[in-house]
Write a structure and sequence with these properties.
Blueprint: H1 11-28, E1 30-34, H2 35-53, H3 57-66, H4 70-83, E2 92-99, E3 106-112
Antiparallel strand pairs: 1-3, 2-3
Helix pairs in contact: 1-2, 1-4, 2-4
């Protein structure tokens, strides 16, 4: 479920990082990361919420197989996804917060709306 950005990593490491970031986003409701990572996480998180909105067993299994924490997957299916039933996409917001102190990478906060 990864997009087109390579993020300077091999595919397996990149996919593991994105799975962790998406899981953290659903667990905490917001995370602070670089802008490019946030844009990649948004793409995957919105797809996960859309999949979680369905009540089919296969869709639930897809969510459980992607997220790294079972309790977070349950939270997505039981709480987060049903709260967006009336909404057709646009479940996240990215807010730029300026450069990071160490390497001046552009930072952002991605949060669930």
């Amino acid at each position: 479920m990864a997009g087109s950005r390579k993020l300077g990593r091999t595919s397996d490491i990149r996919n593991a990082m994105l799975r962790g970031l998406v899981t953290d986003l659903f667990e905490h409701g917001r995370i602070e990361t670089t802008v490019t990572r946030a844009k990649e996480v948004r793409s995957i998180a919105e797809k996960m919420i859309t999949i979680g909105k369905s009540n089919e067993l296969a869709k639930k299994r897809q969510v459980f197989s992607y997220l790294t924490n079972e309790t977070v997957a349950k939270k997505l299916i039981d709480e987060i996804a049903p709260s967006y039933m009336e909404r057709q996409g646009g479940y996240t917001r990215i807010t730029r917060i300026g450069p990071r102190r160490g390497d001046a990478a552009e930072m952002a906060v991605i949060e669930l709306i």
